[in-house]
Amino acid sequence: MWTQDQAVAYEAALEAINDVIAGYSEQIAFEQERAAPSAARIEWLEMRTDQATAIMHSLNVTDTENVRQVLSEYSAIVRARDAAEAVPIAA
Question: Is 58 exposed, middle or buried (0-12, 13-18, 19+ CB in 10 A)?
Fold first, then answer.
């Protein structure tokens, strides 16, 4: 059994992972549409997507420390991406 706090953190971690995967997928599509796509960049993004998917599948709602760590790391990736995307809009 798990607590409500564990369930909320687990769902937030899954959402952060999914957000990161969506961002990588968007970057893959963008790279593929370039006149000269970088195979290395696409491969790296696909590797990161695979890693995120594996982490998502291995995550356990009762593993509070691991959920907290995943939530922290993937939320940071989302925040960094969002901040980087906001800079051109503000300029």
Answer: exposed
Tell me the pTM: 0.88
DSSP 3: -
- Where the chain has pLDDT below 70, the residues are 88-91
Alpha-carbon dihedral of residues 43, 85, 57, 46, nearest 10 degrees?
-10
Is the distance from CB of 17 to CB of 70 less than 8 angstroms?
A: yes
- Cβ atoms of 21 and 11 within 8 Å: the answer is no
CA gap 59, 51 in Å, rounded = 12
Place of tokens 């590797």: 47
